[in-house]
């Protein structure tokens, strides 16, 4: 054991069960940070005197900083441990939430949202590594397959809460809520958790870059990350468009926006459960069938939007698309995190980082080109992402056949 390891506050064996439970509580943080103020986006545009695109940019800046931070945070976690970095990050996150709630400068909000992305990246990646540090084999696979399901509690619960907070207390209350949630996590982490890393790896940037290079050269790993990005982009496109469709196009309240997001959050969770239930089924056939069903749902939404201009049409077919997105994410997320167990921090950071960079670019680009107006633009955005997923899956099929022929 190295000197640096001795100085770390190791997690107590008696606390591992509780710490595991609390680690699951930190997994939805990225979802909470994006989804709780979704019903407040139209209200923020009025209160701050900004455009729809400026309000949506607060989401995109979080996503891209969250993604980019994960690209390097994994190396730091493998070299300096998970616990202290996670603890400091939660504290800074709480302060930045309070700052947002007490400013009316969109540029200060932009800066704090970038800080949110960095701190939540440290929190979430440290907890992904937490599970790889403490568990292995089927138990690890079991826990990892729950990640998508647990994460989906954020998109389910957050906008539902946010809608009521917006109506009763204004958009600032969303960030006070996040600060309070973060404070609870900070105290639980302080008293019940500790360091889990097995061995501190010296921080050698050149060596870390070599590990990154090996990972990005692994075709199946990178294609898996691309599928994660495309899947979550389907959800984020709705998150950025939905509030304006509900509140501006249909002239409904932020509470209805919250209920709509709650409904679609269950779709993501259902897809995660479905992915877990079918985890032993042949991979290519089930993923191909999933993409076909998604495409048919998006096509139906596009067609019916011309004839039946009602909210339920948008929600029913968006629900089916999001079930498929959750299914895709569950299957590929488990694979990517298990791909490089000896460098769990880096692999987890690269997986989350690249996928969120993809999400931030695709979602903002699509909502910019296809503004949040009605179900037709939403359906078109879905179809673009689903077709792209089909092309990536075709490449996966080619790699799979090549690997089989080389073994045979």
UniProtKB/TrEMBL annotation:
Q: What is this protein called?
A: MFS transporter
Q: Which organism is it from?
A: Chitinophaga nivalis
Major localisation:
membrane
Q: Where in the cell is it found?
A: Membrane
What InterPro entries does UniProt report for this protein, alphabetically? MFS, MFS_dom, MFS_trans_sf
What PROSITE patterns does the entry give?
MFS (PS50850)
Q: Where is the Major facilitator superfamily (MFS) profile domain?
A: 19-407
The transmembrane residues are 57-77, 84-101, 107-131, 143-163, 175-194, 215-238, 258-279, 291-308, 314-332, 344-366, 378-398
Note one Pfam family from the annotation. MFS_1
Q: Write out the entry's keywords from A to Z.
A: Membrane, Transmembrane, Transmembrane helix, Transport
**Coiled-coil ranges (or none):** none
Q: What Gene3D superfamilies does this protein's entry cite?
A: Multidrug resistance protein D (1.20.1720.10)
* Superkingdom classification of source: Bacteria
Membrane topology annotation: Multi-pass membrane protein
């Amino acid at each position: 054991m190295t000197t640096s390891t001795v100085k770390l506050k190791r997690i107590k064996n008696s606390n591992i069960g509780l710490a595991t439970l609390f680690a699951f509580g930190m997994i939805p943080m990225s979802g909470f940070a994006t989804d709780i103020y979704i019903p407040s986006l139209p209200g923020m545009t009025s209160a701050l005197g900004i455009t729809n695109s400026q309000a949506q940019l607060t989401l995109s800046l979080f996503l891209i900083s969250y993604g980019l931070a994960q690209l390097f945070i994994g190396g730091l976690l493998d070299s300096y441990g998970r616990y202290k970095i996670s603890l400091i990050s939660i504290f800074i996150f709480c302060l930045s939430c309070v700052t947002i709630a007490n400013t009316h400068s969109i540029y200060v909000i932009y800066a704090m949202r970038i800080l949110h992305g960095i701190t939540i990246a440290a929190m979430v990646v440290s907890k992904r590594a937490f599970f790889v540090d403490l568990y292995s084999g089927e138990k690890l696979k079991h826990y990892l397959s729950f990640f998508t399901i647990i994460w989906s509690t954020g998109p389910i619960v957050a906008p539902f809460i946010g809608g009521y907070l917006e109506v009763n207390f204004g958009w600032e209350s969303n960030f006070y809520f996040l600060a309070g949630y973060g404070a609870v996590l900070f105290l639980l982490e302080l008293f019940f958790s500790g360091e889990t890393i097995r061995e501190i790896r010296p921080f050698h940037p050149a060596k870390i870059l070599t590990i990154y290079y090996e990972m990005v050269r692994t075709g199946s790993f990178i294609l898996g990350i691309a599928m994660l990005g495309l899947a979550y982009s389907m959800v984020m496109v709705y998150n950025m468009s939905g509030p304006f469709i509900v509140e501006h196009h249909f002239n409904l309240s932020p509470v209805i926006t919250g209920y709509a997001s709650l409904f679609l959050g269950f779709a993501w969770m259902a897809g995660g459960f479905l992915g877990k239930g079918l985890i032993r089924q042949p991979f290519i056939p089930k993923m191909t069938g999933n993409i076909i069903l998604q495409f048919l749902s998006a096509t139906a939404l596009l067609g019916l939007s011309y004839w039946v201009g009602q909210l339920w049409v948008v929600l029913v077919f968006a629900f089916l698309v999001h079930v498929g997105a959750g299914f895709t994410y569950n299957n590929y997320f488990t694979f990517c995190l298990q791909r490089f167990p000896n460098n769990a921090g880096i692999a987890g950071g690269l997986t989350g980082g690249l996928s969120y960079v993809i999400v931030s670019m695709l979602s903002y680009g699509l909502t910019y080109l296809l503004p949040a107006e009605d179900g037709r633009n939403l359906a078109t955005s879905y179809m673009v992402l689903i077709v792209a997923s089909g092309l990536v899956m075709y490449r996966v099929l080619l790699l799979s056949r090549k690997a089989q022929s080389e073994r045979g």
